[in-house]
Design goal:
314 residues; mainly alpha; 12 helices; 83% helix; 0% strand
Length: 314
């Protein structure tokens, strides 16, 4: 009996893993191609919206996100999410060839530590409880704790976008990273809820009108979040290295998504001592990795003006 169940569930899980691996490589090329398009348009004094390479990166982002959606529906999140680290490593390699963005020893070590720490964090994170209907999802969304968390995230986003980003966005990479990562709390939650809401909204049942309202609300939240996120990702790529931004963004995005999911699905009550220690180790490893990436990024910025000095004299 158990053997037959494993045989039935293994193929979709294996397919989900393969889809996740392919999507990770596609996502890894996204920031590199968009950065290349921005640099090409800057040389021509034009808009990157008219550059074909930039649009190829945008198309890669769309395809990669569709792949992630399919992977999460075919395999457990605890299996799929760590595979996103492959995209970070692939992006760093690709950037060294396409953009000539060479990471020094500290940068390479920081990139590896970020990926390893994120994987440990995901493995020991609380697992999602199953939500089977839009009514149950609506109940979770109306929970006072999740509402308070959502309001706090919105307040932080307003402060970052209106006051902090104009003043410090071009000098501190964490400003744009924080904005894009906090928006992930809404994009991933909306993606998870759209499938449930769609089933009840278009089933023609007694609760279809209520589910339709939830579906439209989630769809609107997802659309606005993606547009804002997309805008600030490109702002970040205009001023910072693509591989440094991608590594730090992967860490912070994963952390905020795990936090939002844990609050929404009330998962923290199931976390034991071993998982708490594991998450603490993962966060510590990630913090060290981000610190090394920041040091590497600042070192490259101080080196470039000195290296370009003779060109300016000519």
């Amino acid at each position: 009996m158990m053997t037959s169940e494993i045989r039935e569930t293994s193929p979709p899980i294996a397919a989900g893993v393969w889809i996740a691996v392919i999507s990770s490589f596609i996502n890894g090329s996204t920031f590199v191609l968009q950065k290349k398009g921005i640099l090409r348009s800057r040389k021509r004094d034009g808009s990157y919206l008219k550059d074909g390479v930039w649009w190829s990166g945008t198309l890669s982002m769309i395809v990669g996100q569709i792949g992630n959606f399919l992977a999460y529906n075919a395999a457990p999140a605890v299996v799929v999410t760590p595979l996103g680290a492959l995209g970070v490593l692939f992006g760093a390699v690709l950037a060294s060839y396409i953009l000539q963005e060479q990471l020094n020893v500290l940068g390479k070590l920081g990139c590896v530590l970020c990926c390893c720490g994120s994987v440990v964090l995901i493995i020991h994170s609380p697992k999602s409880e199953s939500v089977t209907s839009s009514l149950e999802l609506e109940e979770r969304l109306a929970d006072p704790v999740f509402v308070a968390y959502s309001l706090l995230v919105v307040l932080l986003l307003v402060v970052l976008m209106v006051w902090v980003a104009p003043a410090h966005g071009t000098s501190n990479i964490m400003v744009y990273v924080s904005i894009c990562s906090l928006l992930g709390s809404f994009t991933v939650t909306s993606c998870k809820g759209l499938g449930l809401a769609a089933q009840d909204a278009f089933s023609g049942g007694p609760s279809s009108s209520r589910a339709l309202g939830l579906f439209l609300g989630l769809l609107g939240t997802l659309s606005v979040s993606i547009l804002i996120q997309f805008t600030f990702i490109n702002k970040a790529l205009e001023h910072y290295s693509s591989n440094v931004f991608e590594a730090i963004y992967y860490v912070t995005f994963t952390s905020t998504v795990l936090t939002a999911s844990a609050i929404l699905f009330r998962e923290w009550t199931t976390v034991g001592l071993v998982d708490c220690l594991g998450m603490l180790c993962g966060l510590t490893t990630v913090a060290v990795g981000v610190l090394l990436l920041r040091i590497s990024s600042e070192a490259s910025l101080t080196w470039k003006p000195a290296a370009r000095g003779p060109d300016k004299i000519d």
